[in-house]
## 1
Amino acid sequence: MSQNELFNDGVVKQDVVNARTISVLVPYPVDKAYDYIIPEDLNVSDGDYVLVPLGGREVPAVVWGQSRGDVKPEKLKSIIHKFDLPPMDVAHREFIAWTARYNMAPLGFVLKMALSAPGGLEPPVPAKGYRLKDGFELLKLTAKQNAVVQVLYDNVPRIAADIAREAEVSSGVVKTLFDKGVLECVDIYNPAPCIKPDPYRQRAELSEDQAYAADGLCDFVRSGSYKAVLLDGVTGAGKTEVYFEAVAEALKADKQVCILLPEIALSNAFFQRFKERFGCAPALWHSHLSKGQRDNTWRGVARGHTKVVIGARSALYLPYRDLGLIVIDEEHDPAYKQEDGVIYHARDMAIMRAFKGSFPIVLVSATPSVETMQNVWDGKYEHMVLPSRFGGAHMPDIEAIDMRLEKLDAQHFISLQLRQAMEETLGRGEQILLFLNRRGYAPLTLCRSCGHRMECPRCTAWLVEHKVGAGQGRLQCHHCGFHAYAPDKCPECAEPDSMVACGPGVERIYAEAQHYFPDANVMLLASDTAEDGETLKGMLSDIREGRVDIVIGTQIIAKGHHFPNLTLVGVVDADLGLQGGELRASERVYQLLHQVAGRAGRAAKKGRVLLQSFMPDHRIIKALCESSHGDGRDAFIETEVAEREVAHMPPFSRLAGIIVSGRDEAQVFEVAKLLGRSAPQGPEIVTLGPAPAPYAKLRGKFRYRLLVQAGKNLDLQKTLAAWVAGVKVPSTVRVYIDIDPQSFL
Ligand code: ADP
Ligand code: ZN
C-alpha cells in the first residue's frame, strides 16, 4: 500500500474485500470497539497500542480482538501505526471490560483511564547532555572552564544546567567548551522511576506476630494465584512493615506491585520508609504530577521496567506489564470511591484486578469496612491479625466527656475536663491534638435580629466563615468555591452588626486554645492552611520535632502520621455525623474517630483520648471507649452488620443510586418523575424516590435522586440498563448511575 493511500484519511481503495480487519477500542465514551483495516506491512495483535484516525483526528487506541464485521470494509479506515510497546496484558483488558460492565460506564471511557498519559506511548524524548570528548586537547583553560572539566571527569553526561550548578559557573561556560571541542553532545534519557528496588535491603526485625503474618503473605505471593487477604491490626502494629515483606517477595519474582493509598498527603512519610526499605523511591501516581513525570511513569509501567507504583485510586488502571501484587492501605477509606467520570470503588475493582491477573491482594486496615469483615466471616477473604502495637506501645485510654454536665459559656467549645487534661499534658512537655472535622471559623452565620442564614446561592449549603489563610475574612461555600465578604449588616433585614457566627470550626477552636494557653505553640492544620505538599511536610516535621505543643486539626491529620510525643487527643465534637441517618454514617464516624484516637501515644508514652459528646451513651461512643481494651471494634462491626441484615441493606443486598441533574429544575424533575414511574419494582427489587438530593442544588445544578435496592441474585446492571434506556433524556439533563453508592448526597 502506498503512502498516499494511507494518508488519504486511512481509506483504502483497493482490495478492500480481502483486507484484514481488526477491532480497536478508542479512549472516548463509546460502548464498543470499532473495526479498522490492518495495513499490509503491519503485524498487529490483541492488546497492541495503535494510532487510528477518528473523526478527523489521530488518536491512540488499543487493539481489542477480532473484527466485528458490522461495517462494510470499504467504509473502514486503516490503522496508522503501531506504537513500540509490549501489548496491554490480557488480564488488564479483561479488567477494563469488567469495570465498564459493572459500573455501567462506556467501555472506551474506562480505557481512557488506562491511557491517561498519551505521551508515554512515544519513545522517551532525550535531553541534550554533555561529556568530555575522547582525547580532547587540554588547551589553555580558564579557571571556570577547568572547574567544568573537573566535574565531568567521572564520564557521566549531564545537562548543561546541572554541570553549571556543580561547577558553580554559568551554563555559558559549558557552551564555550563545547564550541572549543572539549565537550561533546550526547542524548541522555530520564530513566523510568523505581527500576531496581532491592528486596533484600534493610529488612526489619519482625516480632513473632508480624513474622507469622508476613510469612503467610509471602506464601500467597509465591503461590502466584488469586487470594484476598485482610491484614487487620491496630494502628502502630506494624502493618506497613509486614506488607513490605509481601512487596519484597513479589519483587524477587520480578513482578510489579501496585500500592494504593487513600490520600496522597500520606505519601511523604511513606515515601521515606519505602526508600529505606528498598533503596530506591517508588513511582508515584496522582493528579499533581507534571506531564513529563506522568509520561515517564506510564511508559515505565507499560514496559514493565517500573516495579512499584504508589498512588491514588487511578493507579489501579495503569497498564501493568506483569502485576503480581496489589496492596490497598486503609481499605475502609471513603476516598477509594471515585464520584465523577467513571464512578467506581477502587478497592472493589482491585479485587477483580487481582482475580483476573491471578495474584494476591492485601487489604489493610485497623478499622475494616463492614463489607470486608463480612467477606472475612463468609470465608471469602483470609484474615491475618496483628493484635498489638509494635514495641510494647499501649493502646490509648478512650473516655467520653459528658457535655450535658459541662457548663460552658456560650460560643465556647473546650470543656473544663479537656482543659485540665491539656494542662497536665503540657506540664509533662507532651503534645496535644484537638480534632474537629470542620474547616473554617464557624459553620453558620446568622442574623441575630431576623434569623436570616447565609446560604450559598448555587448549593444547598451554609456559607462558612474563614478568618485564617487565603480566604481570610470571607464566607465560603465548601462545595463550589463560591465566596463573599462577610456583610456588616444583614442582607435580609438590613440590621447593622447583627450577623453572628454559630458553632465551631477549627479556626475557632484554634483561637480558643490560644486564649487558654497563651504560652503554648498552637498550630492550625487543615487542607486550607496546608495547601501544598511542601507546606504540609514542613508542618508535620514541626510537630514531629516538637516545635508545636497543640495541634488543631481536621481529618488531614487523622491518618497515618506518627508523632511519638503526642499523648492527648481531644475530639471536640464526637457527635458530628452520628445523626446523619446515612447507611454508612456510623461506620464512618467510628472509623474516623478510631483513626484519630490512634494518633495518641504511639511510642513509649501511653496516650489518652477524650471524646466530647452530648450523647455519651450512643453505641458508637461506647464502642470507641471499649476499643481501647480490644474487643469493642468487632462488637461494633457485628452490631452494624446485624442492623444492615434486618434493614436488608448491603452487604445483604445491593444498592444503586440514580442521580438526575441539570440547570433547569422543571426539566430535571420531569426526567426524575419519568424514571420513577417506570422504575423496576418486584419481590427482588425496590426503587425509592425520586426525591430532591440532600444537596438539592450543587454548583448551580438541580439534583434529584432515586435509590434502587435489589436482591443479590438479580442482574442489577441489566435491569438498570433496560430501565434507563426506556426514558428519553434531553441533552441538557444528565442521568448518572452510581453502583454501590457510598455517599447519598
Ligand atoms: P501500622 O501501619 O500498623 O499503623 P506501622 O507499620 O506504621 O504500623 O508501624 C508503626 C511504627 O512502628 C513505625 O514507626 C514502624 O517503623 C515501627 N515498627 C513496626 N514494626 C517494626 C519492626 N518490626 N521493627 C522496627 N520498627 C517497627
Ligand atoms: Zn456553593
Note: The chain has six domains: 6-115, 127-188, 208-384, 395-438+505-643, 440-503, 654-739.
## 2
Amino acid sequence: MKVLILPDAAAATDRAASVLIDELRARPASVLGLATGGTMEPLYERLRASHREGLSFAQATTFNLDEYVGLGPDHPRSYHAYMREKLFDQVDIDPSRAHLPRGDTADPHAEAAAYEDAIGRAGGIDLQLLGLGANGHIGFNEPMSSLASPTRIKTLTRSTRDANRRFFEGAEPVPRFAITMGIGTILRARACVLLATGAGKAGAAARMIEGPVSAACPASALQMHPRATVMLDRAAAAELELRSYYEHVHPDGRGRDVV
Ligand code: GLP
C-alpha cells in the first residue's frame, strides 16, 4: 500500500484527481469505479475542469460503488442524482455506460447480483476510486463485512446513517439499507486509489494502514491489494505511527507511478 501524505485537503484531492485524469488520458476506454460522499465533491469539480480543458469521458465506462435501497434514480438524495449533478451531466460520458445499482427495484438482491455480473462483463474495473467512512467502511461495507464479499445488500450502521444525515433534509429518514460493491469486488479492481481528508478520518486511516487486516476495519483489506494507493491530508494522517517514514519515502506525497 502506498501512503501519500499531502500538505492539505486541496493537494490530496488534486493528487487523486490527477490519477483518474492520467488514466483516462492513457486509456480513454478505461473502466472506472467511482465513489460518492462529501470528500469527492471537490474531486469531481477538478474532473469537470479537466473536461472543459479537453479531457474526454466519451469512451469510458463507470461503475459506482453503491446506492441507497429505496431511492429511485430521480430521488434528489440518491447517488444517481449526486453523480448526474457532480459529473455525468457535465461531461461527455455515454449515460448507457455510467452505471450505478438501482435502489428502487422490487428485488434488490437480484439487482446486486446483476450489478456484479455487469462489472465482470465490462472486463472488471481498471481503477477504483474510494472514500473512507469514519468507521473504516469502504463503499457501504460496514464493519464485519466479509473480506470476500460480492455486491450485495448491507444494513447501514447507526453511525453511518448519522454521518450521512447532513445530506438529507429535515425529517426525511436516511435509508436503512444500501446496495454496495463488496470488499471482494473492490479487491478485484486492478488498482485502487483511496482519498481521505480531515481529522474525522484520522482514526480510520490509522486502522486501515497500520492495523491488522480485519473485517472490523473493512478498508484494512486494501493492505492485501497489490496496487492500492492512499492519499491523505495531514489532518487525516495525524494518527499514523509511521507517519515520518511515509513522508520520508514520498515527501509531500510526491512519487512516480503512484498506482
Ligand atoms: C459514504 C459512502 C462512502 C464514502 C464515505 C465517506 O457513506 N458510501 O463511499 O466514502 O461514506 O463519505 P464522506 O466523504 O462524506 O465523509
Note: Helices lie at 9-26, 41-52, 79-86, 108-121, 158-164, 183-188, 202-210, 243-249.
## 3
Amino acid sequence: MLAEKIQELLQQVQQLHAKNAEELEALRIKYLSKKGLLNDLMTEFRDVPNEEKRTIGMKLNELKTQAQEKINELRNSLMQQDDATDVPDLTRTPYPLPLGTRHPINIVKERLIDIFSHMGFTMADGPEVEDDWHVFSSMNFAEDHPARDMQDTFFVEQHPDIVLRTHTSSVQARVMEKTEPPIRVICPGRVYRNEAISSRAHCFFHQLEGLYIDEKVSFADLMQVMLSFSRELFGAQTQIRMRPSYFPFTEPSAEMDISCHICGGTGHTEDGHTCALCKGTGWVEILGCGMVDPNVLELNGIDSTKYMGYAFGMGLERIANLLYRVRDLRMFSENDVRFLEEFTSAG
Ligand code: PHE
C-alpha cells in the first residue's frame, strides 16, 4: 500500500514543472515541507511491519532525493530563464544623465556677454602674460604709479617688463592699436594681482571691460548703457548713481553704484533690520568707468581731436557675489563640487 503511494509520487515528482518562482515554492511546500506529502508518507512508514522496513525505507529515501533534485533542477532552470530575459528594455525612458553645472563665474560672464552683445558690443581677447606697455604705459599710468609696484603686479620678466595682466584694459589697448574707430568691444578675462588670499581677496579673479569709441560719445551715453545693463542684470527697478573717482586711463572717472537689489534701495528689510548687503545705505558699488582719457587715445594711435569714448570695467566675482551671495571669494576657485552643484539651475 505504502509502496504504491511511493511509486505514484515518484512518477508525479518526475513530471513536475513550474512557470515561475511562486509555482515552484508551492510545489516545494506541497511535497517537501513539514506538512507536505512526503512527510505524510514518513508518518505512515512507522506502521510498516519490520520485515518490510528496509525495502520501503530505501524507496522512501529514493523519493525524497528525487523530489529534492527535481525542485533544485526547476529552480536552476528558472534562474537561467531570468538571465535570458534580462535584456535591456529599449522602450524604457533612460535614467536622467547627471549633468555638470556651469561655473558661477561663467554664468555671470555669459549673461554679461549676452546683454552687451545685444547692445552691439563684440568680444575681444588678449594674452594673460602681457608686456608693460599694454597693461600700464599705453593706459596712461605714470612711471611711478603705485599699481606698477611689486606689491600688486606679478612680474614674469624684468627689463623689459613682462607681467601677468592686472586688468583687462590691456585688451582695450590691443584693440585700439589695430582697429579704426568706431570701436565697440567687451573684453572678459582673468587678471592677476599680488594679494594675500583671503575671503575677500584673491591673487587672480575675472573682469569684464567695455570700450566704446566714436566721433560723438558722451558721458550721458555711458550712463544710459550702464542703466540698461544694470536693469537687465538686477531687475527693472534698478537705479544707478555715479560717484567721482580716479583711474589713469579715464577722465572724468566714476565709480558706479546700483540701488541695492536686496532691500530695493531702502536700506532695511521689511521687518526693519538694516540691510546686510548695502549696510543700510541703499546702494552697492559694482564697477568703475569713465570717458577715455585723450592721452590713452593718442598713445594707442587714435586721433583724439576726432574721436572720443567711454570705458567701463567690472569684477565678475563681485557681480556673482551680488547675484548669489557667495560669502567667501575662495569658493570660486576651489572647485568644490558641493558649491558648484548649487548652481545647477542658475542662469
Ligand atoms: N581697469 C579698471 C580696474 O581694473 C577698471 C576700469 C576699466 C575702470 C575701465 C574704468 C574704465 O579696476
Note: Residues 107 and 347 are 6 Å apart (CA to CA).
